[in-house]
UniProtKB/TrEMBL annotation:
The active site is at E264. Transmembrane segments: none annotated. It is an enzyme of class 1 (oxidoreductase). It is found in: Cytoplasm. It catalyses: D-glyceraldehyde 3-phosphate + NADP(+) + H2O = (2R)-3-phosphoglycerate + NADPH + 2 H(+). The keyword Metal-binding does not apply. Keywords: Cytoplasm, NADP, Oxidoreductase. One of its GO terms (cellular component) is cytoplasm. This is NADP-dependent glyceraldehyde-3-phosphate dehydrogenase. It comes from Riccia fluitans.
Amino acid sequence: MAGKGVFKDMIDGEVYKYYADGEWKRSASGGTVSILNPSTRKPQYKVQACTQDEVNKIFDSAKAAQKLWAKTPLWKRAEALHRAAAILKENKVAIAEALVKEVAKPQKDAVTEVVRSGDLISYTAEEGIRILSEGKFLVSDSFPGNDRNKLCMSSKIPLGVVLAIPPFNYPVNLAVSKIGPALIAGNALVLKPPTQGAVSCLHMVHCFHLAGFPKGLISAVTGKGSEIGDFLTMHPMVNCISFTGGDTGIAIARKASMIPLQMELGGKDACIVLEDADLDLAASNIVKGGYSYSGQRCTAVKVVLAFESIADMLVAKVNAKIAKLTVGPPEEDSDITPVVSESSANFIEGLVKDAREKGAKFHQEWKRDGNLIWPVLIDHVRPDMRIAWEEPFGPVLPVIRIKTVEEGIHHCNANNFGLQGCVFTKDINKAIMIADAMETGTVQINSAPARGPDHFPFQGIRDSGIGSQGITNSINMMTKIKSTVINLPGASYQMG
């Protein structure tokens, strides 16, 4: 089944179709949206520019399909998810090729993302069976003043139609992290792919199509945000929104109606390095955490807070590792590849320029060629520099030198973001106390921040998000509790 021929039904000439009612369709608008290759900065793909009327029809179909899907036995839902996972893995090379071309992800990382996504779907199927097959049984006499004349059975039921909006940097993995839990829980799913990453998403959706899910249950709608963005997120048939991305999520949260929201937004993940830390371990994780996929990860190390006494030694070790990073096109599996867009590259350059003008020390020459930015470590950063607080989403990492643990914790907690953080020390007592004091969704001890494994809870505070992700949490969030109370006839029983 593997190979590009599997995906031929998705394409009309040079334009990828959208997916609705179990079919690949052309939009009545006749319009398209171009996707630029970040490496060449030239058009690589085109997708349909769907209309609001087509969105309405998608939601009508989703609502009808969901009613039937909710009655489908759990084991059948799980079976279908396992099939989709297998098909996804079989076609990892073709899907990875799209990731390389539209988000400049290195080939090896692109393949890994697809395989990881298949594993996530399979795990979700099994976890869903465990969670959703459980119910709760209560009796009325456990509450003061009540007799044993009522029985309550509670269970989890689907919300209805889930709108999933993944980001460009992990368009396949962060799509299936929403799709899998939604489907196993008995919901229908409407996917709005990111523009950069849309074709990868559509390939992934085709794997679900080949797995034989009911028509209308899964849809993928592409188009211009100005035309269908708010229309999707404010649609009255949406019963839940799961979004991963940037500031747009805050706007969505403000506009959405009274429905469950799962939002994972930005991060300014702080790395606190204490005087007793293993500096080789810290340096390796700083480079891995700060520069992998060119720093375009919400869980990337975004600021290093190093004690003055060890800062010079740590910076030297980090610089030595940066010097070994390869820079170039994703097709060559380079460590540093072009950032996703020219506007992103311009924003990063603005942060760098601000730091330079205010006296920060650069250990590498600033170098940019189009969207390709060479890795830079910016030392002696102060709180009055933008890069101390703003998220670059690129291969640029600031170092702030601190005198006390309290100073590091304060900087971490003063930021608008609170996604993840990490602390390096050999003293487990200090590690636990600092982790407790850091106001962030997750703290890693002696390791770089990371999203996975995908069943771990994953959440942020403040502007980093609403709700918690991870397979178990997502399944629970995409369901609600329903109680059935049985009122028993007969005399009550009393002591005495």
